[in-house]
Write a structure and sequence with these properties.
183 residues; alpha/beta
Length: 183
């Protein structure tokens, strides 16, 4: 199997900025690099849309996945609430269309929730995010928690929790592949 892992944002596009100045771009790059390593050790071919703090627009992310004819696309993000409300926390995973996209998002959501006790399960939802809308393979976008939320931000600031999230995302992907492909 082959997969594109997309750490959201990057470079001058820092994404969400949370409590204590924690930046989405750094959180998601760390998680994505760990997901890539875990999946490579399991025998998957992994392509990252970025492996460092560089700007990558949305179209090149999608184009890379479509050109590479990968089996899956997973974009990793961290959320922020409007007005930076510290009481808003939770994990949510998005898909654009199709039973396979929904199933991939569901597996990832279930696994990330397991390693985030107490963080609200905001569910699997349909969305039109560019990177999951225009990819030609099953795709999901996971929001690993709210950087503006008191509970989630303190967790995402910890390397140990980011590792747990990496393992959870990887497990969700592998469970999906096992069910879909039987390999």
């Amino acid at each position: 199997y082959s997969i594109v892992i997309d750490p959201g944002h990057g470079g001058s596009d820092v994404g969400a900025v949370g409590i204590g100045g924690i930046r989405e771009t750094k959180v998601v790059l760390d998680i994505a690099l760990q997901v890539a390593e875990i999946l490579k050790k399991k025998g998957l071919k992994v392509i990252l849309t970025r492996g460092s703090e560089i700007d990558v627009d949305l179209y090149p992310r999608v184009s890379l996945a479509n050109r590479s004819k990968v089996d899956l696309f997973v974009s990793i993000h961290a959320n922020a609430s409007r007005n930076k409300r510290r009481n808003v926390n939770g994990i949510e995973t998005f898909f654009y269309s199709g039973a396979k996209g929904f199933k991939l998002a569901s597996y990832i959501q279930d696994q990330v929730i397991k390693v985030s006790p107490g963080s609200p399960d905001r569910g699997v939802r349909k969305s039109r995010f560019y990177v999951i809308r225009w990819t030609h393979m099953p795709a999901a976008l996971v929001e690993t928690g709210f950087l503006t939320g008191r509970m989630d931000s303190s967790r995402l600031a910890q390397a140990a929790h980011r590792y747990k999230v990496s393992v959870a995302i990887s497990r969700g992907i592998l469970l999906y592949l096992k069910e879909e492909g039987g390999r």
